[in-house]
Amino acid sequence: MADRLRKIAVEEAFIVPELAERLRDFSNSPSLSLDKLFFGPLYGGKLRLRERPVLEDLLDVENQRLAEMDRLGVDMQVLSVTSPGVQMLDADTACDVSEIINDRLADIVHRRPDRFAGLAAFAPHAPKRAAREIERAIGQLGLNGLIVNSHTNNEYLDDPKFYPILEAAEAHDATLYIHPRAPSDLMAGALHSYGIESAMWGYGVEVGTHVVRLMTSGVFDRFPKLRICIGHMGEAIPFWLWRINNINAKGQRAGLCPKTELSMQEYFLRNVYITTSGMEDPLALEYSIRKLGADRVLWAIDYPYEASASATKFIEEAPLDPEVKKKVAYKNAEALFHIAPAR
Predict the structure, then answer these.
(1) Which has the higher per-residue pLDDT, 235 or 194?
(2) Where is each Amidohydrolase-related domain found (predicted)?
């Protein structure tokens, strides 16, 4: 009998009641944010993808979630606060709630270090305080990385105002996971209809745009050791990478794009990692591994928004070389998020 495949899922959402209550209030506000189309029903307790409301799955970590992990052979989940996190709160409240999230998350990880790791939350709209929270969460609480839900107040991390956050992430060797939320107002206009503002299309467009901004702006020249992780098989960037690289090179020669030290492809292959969350397509997985290398692709479920059973079956049955499969299933996660190997 073949050895059982160790599995670490790296984009797995949870929430604390203090944030859920504030986002429930926001969902009842007059805001026109596209996020409300999905998160209004979620925080109102009306969104169901399985037997119980998604909000209950997000609030529960050590009961039904853990039982499902046991049943399906998922060894660990890397937990992170669900989108849109604290980024829709005012800056002071967002900072305070981030501290609560990180304290609770650290408690969970310390109780069950064999089953859970955690990505720290922070408030991007208070960059200096966010940098201090990153130092506390990584240096004192021992969390495994960072989570940001793409734009904050329609602004992206290539803006120099956010450099204290990127500097802290690089200094603490903390991978920054850029998770989706609904597109910013800058590109929301055509995405109001047919449900395409969310995971069907808008989420990938949002995060893909964010990462391309980081590459083209020269952020990775200033922070060469900064590591970014994105989900959903790279938010389509691996499939566009040749064209992004080619057009940017032409643009730099013509003076239409900022000069950078490396090419767009070099930045992506040096600074960016991707996960399989919500993309159970064997051909996409094969392409991504061949394009980026087996060390840069990680397995994820996207719990509780995607089904754990199908995601687990996807990696177990993936037609990969056994050593490559081990890298994708758990070894890359151990390396990228500082998770101790199983004893």
Answers:
(1) 235
(2) 65-338
